[in-house]
Write a structure and sequence with these properties.
The protein is mostly helical. It has one domain: Farnesyl Diphosphate Synthase (Orthogonal Bundle), CATH 1.10.600.10. It has a two-stranded antiparallel ribbon. A hairpin with a 2-residue loop joins strand 1 and strand 2. Helix 1 packs across helix 16 and helix 12 packs across helix 14. The N terminus is likely disordered.
Amino acid sequence: MRKTEMSADVIPLRPQHAEPSLGPIMTLTAPGMNAVNQVILERMQSEIPLIPALAGHLIAGGGKRMRPMLTLAGAALCDYHGTRHHKLAAAVEFIHTATLLHDDVVDGSELRRGKAAANLIFGNPATVLVGDFLFTRSFELMVEDGSLKVLKILSNASSVISEGEVDQLTAARQIETSEERYLSIIGAKTAALFAAATRIAAVVAEKSEAEERALDDYGRNLGIAFQLVDDAMDYDSEVSEMGKGKGDDFREGKMTLPVILAYAQGNDEERAFWKAAIQGHRTSDADLAHAVELIRRHDAVNATRERARHFAQRAINAIAIFPQSEARSAMAEAAEFAVSRRS
């Protein structure tokens, strides 16, 4: 990958031996997250009992709530003291939750955050329809905010996410998928919502276009880093660590970066294995073990994590235009956490 030139004012990632966490950003956003969670709880209710039951299964099932926290942290970075961002952060979480429900149906997932996936409990039709319900709730919240600019940012992100998911579906089992296309896919299906979540904070705070772009760049690069690490963990984490089945991406024939790198560096025998595996002909536990061994042989997980560190650095550099503050430090720590996590 071609390295992007950094500005002279580079804010370094912390030393690798240190242990970053989400603690600072969670502390910063805790009061606001209480308000966001209240909105989420209220807006997932319905007279149809299945809707809150199914939505609650996922929403109450854990998760870091990273995206709404970024909206709140971005508002703090912009020194915004209003409350508009609470409903918008809830809208962001509803969009994310809806995509997770749809993803689990598409992927046939059995686990989500260490629990049985909603589609296994409630069935595919109900899961898809409740995902649609959450999408509509998110748009209700956007409309209530009254800003056409906010509506444009979040609605565009929703469209881009859908395009990314379709692109990933068409790239599945395509062994010749390039790193460039892979980055385009994760830029759409993951990073677009991170970017929108942070950018809208600058909009509600009525900041300049340059500050909006800075928060957009922060979120977009953080989202790419976050997904790169997710994809690396599918080949170096146990089920208990990840909350999902190890090797899910492998069995679904997803061309993630560890596979792309291992395939590119492999010999003829290794490439023949990868072609059979990605096409769905080699998916046993023994095949998965062999895939992990090949990925380790070519150091593809570490190479993937190194690329993630590159994008995390770009995220941190993007917010250097803002004055040093508790919020900027917390957002930098969040980027560091994204690339250091093992679960």
